[in-house]
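Reopening: structure tokens for the 3,4-dihydroxyphenylalanine complex, inputs below.
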Amino acid sequence: MKERLEELRNEALEKVEKAENIKELQDVRVSYLGKKGPITEVLRGMGKLPAEERPVIGQLANDVRESIARAIEDKQTELEKEALEQRLREETIDVTLPGRPNQVGGPHLLTKLIQEIEDLFIGMGFEVAEGPEVETDYYNFEALNLPKGHPARDMQDSFYITEEILMRTHTSPVQARTMEKHEGKGPVKIICPGKVYRRDTDDATHSHQFTQIEGLFVDKNVRMSDLKGVLNTFAKKMFGEDREIRLRPSFFPFTEPSVEMDISCKICRGEGCSVCKGTGWIEILGAGMVHPNVLRMAGFDPDVYNGFAFGMGPERIAMLKYGIDDIRHFYINDVRFLKQFHQA
Ligand code: DAH
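Re-run output (same inputs, fresh job):
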């Protein structure tokens, strides 16, 4: 029995030594120290021994058990240490490697420009107003002094949804809507940014969808010089203090008189070059004094109130400000284009 126990000890210790991982070690524990293991079996046969040998064998069996258990424990600590060291080796981070920069997005150039224009006008006491992109013929045209059959309707080719509903062709309908809400009482001082739609073929300067910002100031005693002052402030803040503006007579059905505003060409400073087509001036926006019919239809008494309005295209402004040569760049969303303006 003694020999058997010694044999088991040696066998077990050898297996412990050879174990390559925790799982194998666990198997050794179960097969040698478990209840059904060979040592327990030896002890079970102890009854057959003479009484004086029993304590000796019992003592030895305990010894064998303990030495196997200790060996397993030591081996386990060793294996765990090895495993940890291996993981540390494999997971080492080289903190000296250069990092991989994250791709960070930013607001679209147009969004930023519109916000900048909003801020400029908010600084002059204007509020931001909005209106629907799917508009009625009434607000898009009639309320702006463009009755059905008016030839100036042809200036804006429209996407009609029904006879009376269309995609708005400009942001001017927000004028009429906002004035109505004021129920004949001024002042109304708003700018209205938003998307507009025209049945145009897309090319470098045309897009079937683009953005506009409308402005409207209605109060008692509003004069053309107020319009000029506001537009001059806007132009200088947007394009630079050294730029001049000029107002040219024009026609819009909703304003009388109507003007178009030009700014002096940055490239040639008025001398004439290819950017300004030799004129020294670049057209920026349309404006004028609100037509009495427009005031009247929106519930304002034109004998008491008057006002000015203007409309501009942020795409055109961005193109001039940043030298962008094709309106389609705004909509294609090529990040190589867009990311140039993240810091702008
Ligand atoms: N609605 C005009 C357009 O889309 C722009 C415009 C011109 C708006 C003159 C105005 C204005 O308010 O007074 O072409």
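Residues 109-339 form a domain with the BirA Bifunctional Protein; domain 2 fold (CATH 3.30.930.10). The chain has two domains: 2-90, 109-339. Marking as resolved unless the reporter disagrees.
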